[in-house]
Fold:
Amino acid sequence: MTHPAGAVREATSLLGQIADTALDDDYYVFRGSDAPRTRWDGAWVAVLIVLFAIIMTAAAVQTREDRPATELERRTLAQDIEARRQVLESRQSTASELRDEVESLRASAARVDPRTEDLRLVAADVPAEGPGIVATASGSPDDVVGGRISDNDLQLLVNGLWYAGAEAIAVNGNRLGSLSSIRTAGDAITVNFRSIGPPYTVIALGDPDTLTERFSENQGGAYWEARAKSSGLRLSMTPSSEVSVPAVPAGRLDLKHATALEVDR
Structure:
């Protein structure tokens, strides 16, 4: 059995040994291998500090030098934005002026001189309506020589109605103007270059009684009377209190060579 006093001494010795060996042996090896610091170590530290200071100074100087360029770019961008804003305002103002001009033209168009409308009516530029006659022409029911209606027959019919005082004429819905034509194209008759076929309906605006009477007295009426007797062509005229004709096609109104002369009135 161990004596108490010996146990105390052993415990004290063990604690001392633990305290003496608290650090790893490698620590002592490392500490023991440290070389003594020389003056070059301090010089390198100073060099590094100087280099760092130079780098920081150069960065600050570069930032300060770049600031004017940045300010110039900012001012240039602001000026560009202002110039574009002024261009936009100018264009908006121009668009507003054009809208006002269009409205003015529309208002003036609503106050057209009646004489202008009359001229458009005479030129067949607008549709027309009023009293008149409806003439229906058809060929002979018998198969006889000359029993078919030709372009010449329709031309003389239309000319006879013009001589009788017609103010507007349409053949099978095709308005006649100063540049209109009635001609044969193959086996068909064309009006304003549009093919038409029998029966041929001619609408003429004017005084119904006067138109019928004057047509029968002029060369057109005499021609058709002779054609009816020789070839069996048929022509009937029906007075009407209200007939209408369309406007002439736009292509039959365009002038390519003729120009108006200035005359003193």
